[in-house]
Design brief:
Strand content: 5-15%
Number of helices: 4
Largest sheet: 2 strands, antiparallel
Radius of gyration: 25 Å
Strand order of the largest sheet: 1-2
Distance between the termini: 73 Å
C-alpha cells in the first residue's frame, strides 16, 4: 500500500508493507501440563528451546522414528489419564528397567 502526497512541487512517497502473521492456534492446556509434568521442563524453557531449534538444520534431518513413536505413545497415555479415560496403551510391566543393563 502506498500513499502519495504532493506539496511544494515535490512528491513524497510513504510505503507500508502489509505483514501477515500466521494465525496461532491456542495450545490445549493438557499439552502444556504434559511438557511440565512428563518432560520435567518449565514451559518457558521449552518455548525458548523451540525458537532456537531452527538455527540447527541437522535436527530436522535426524530420523528417529522409534523416539517419535515413543513420544506419541507417551502423549496419548497422558491425554487419556488427564481427561479421565481408560488408558488403552499401557506401559509394559518391566518399563522401569527396560533399558538398564547389568554392568560388571
Amino acid at each position: 500500500m502506498s500513499y502519495r502526497q504532493r506539496g511544494n512541487n515535490r512528491q513524497l512517497s510513504y510505503s507500508r508493507q502489509m505483514t501477515t502473521h500466521p494465525k496461532l492456534e491456542p495450545l490445549p492446556a493438557w499439552e502444556k501440563t504434559f511438557c511440565i509434568e512428563v518432560g520435567a521442563m518449565p514451559w518457558e524453557r521449552f518455548v525458548e528451546l523451540k525458537k532456537n531449534l531452527y538455527e540447527h538444520d541437522k535436527v530436522f534431518e535426524w530420523d528417529d522414528s522409534a523416539g517419535l513413536t515413543a513420544f506419541q505413545e507417551a502423549k496419548q497415555r497422558f491425554w487419556e489419564i488427564y481427561h479421565g479415560f481408560p488408558c488403552e496403551n499401557k506401559l509394559p510391566s518391566n518399563a522401569a528397567n527396560l533399558y538398564i543393563e547389568d554392568v560388571d
